[in-house]
Amino acid sequence: MDLRPRSHPTYLAFVVHRVSGLLLALFLPLHFWVLGTAITGEARLEGFLRWADNPLVKAAETVLVVLLAAHLAGGLRVLALEFLGWRSRQKDLVAASAGIALLAGLAFLLNVV
Amino acid sequence: MAEPASLKVSVWRGGADGALARFEVPARENQTVLDVVTHIQRELDPSLAYRFACRVGMCGSCAMTVNGRARWTCRTHVRKVVGPDGALELRPLANLPVIRDLAADLTPFFEKWRRARGRFEPREAPDGAVPEDFAVVPPASRARREADAGIECIGCGVCYASCDVVAWNPDYLGPAALNRAWTLVNDVRDGARAERLDAVAGDAGCHSCHSTQSCTERCPKGLDPSSAIAGLKRTLFWDTLFGRR
Q1: pLDDT tens sequence across A50-60
Q2: Which residues of chain A make contact with B224, given a CB cutoff of 8 A?
Q3: Where does the record locate the signal sequence feature (chain B) (predicted)?
Q4: Segments forming the whole domain that contains residue A55
């Protein structure tokens, strides 16, 4: 794919929104499986949560939080574009969405470490 | 930046299965990409096919792909797009059939304007009669401002060639046709609002837009087709919700 015609901020925002959505959809089954263990066996859930304490999983969780925040902020950006009819400052909206996503990730990390 | 003495120009030759041919063109001050193409055709290879008319950014016929991006070539200065080694790559507009060399066939592009009902249909005189009086349209009214924002389209096809959704769905009406439809939806003198909204509401219409905003980013006239499409989506949403259509 030729990236030259696609190298602008709003295209990047589109890609981030789509890819984060796809990755979150892939994560959902795991999420439901963990919730399921809460019903089926307390010990199993406890074991999983202890495993989830290792730094690598925490790093993955941070990425997940950033993805979730990016998808939310990106979605709000599209809603603003479509429902409010804002014509100007589209790139500022993209930057604000990215900022919100990274802030959420940072806040999560601060809470973890 | 020191400008190279000559430009190394790769130009698409042939139809869809053609190839790039190399030309060496002298670099000049204030040279536009269209000047380069004209030099090749007049001095180096008279068989080169390309299209232009006004040379001043009004007619919209000289758009091509320049170093990977769709641009109007008559108002694109070489120094703004040329690589450091004087490299320039020229191809016909993307997302359209290639007639030959740099000339793309714009038939599908204008056919979609027709499908989006891009023709003004006077409300006062549906049979073509001349209305008795001028319509009063306050320039500051919201509808007129929306229409004015998109009315300067020159039909160059740059937005259409830059749109990924057109590449993914060949039936998609594309940014220019939808922008045109939005200007007419906001024209209080027009009488075909309902039919036009129907025409742009289908699978190939405004709802297919993914808001990548490449159209807005690349429009040489600085128009914002992406917001026009958003306007159509919004109008259809509220009209459907409140049973107005």
Answers
A1: 888 888 988 89
A2: 87
A3: none
A4: 5-112
Domains of chain B: 6-104 (3.10.20.30), 107-241 (1.10.1060.10)
pTM: 0.90
Query: For position A96, which CATH number holds?
Result: 1.20.1300.10
How many domains, chain A? Answer: 1
Question: Tens digit of pLDDT for each residue in B43-65?
Answer: 999 999 999 999 999 999 999 99
Average pLDDT over residues B53-79: 97
Q: Give the integer Cα–Cα distance in Å for A25 and A44.
A: 24
**Pairs of residues, one from chain A and one from chain B, whose beta carbons lie less than 8 Å apart:** 55
| Chain B CB within 8 Å of residue A48 CB | no
CA distance B43 to chain A (A): 30
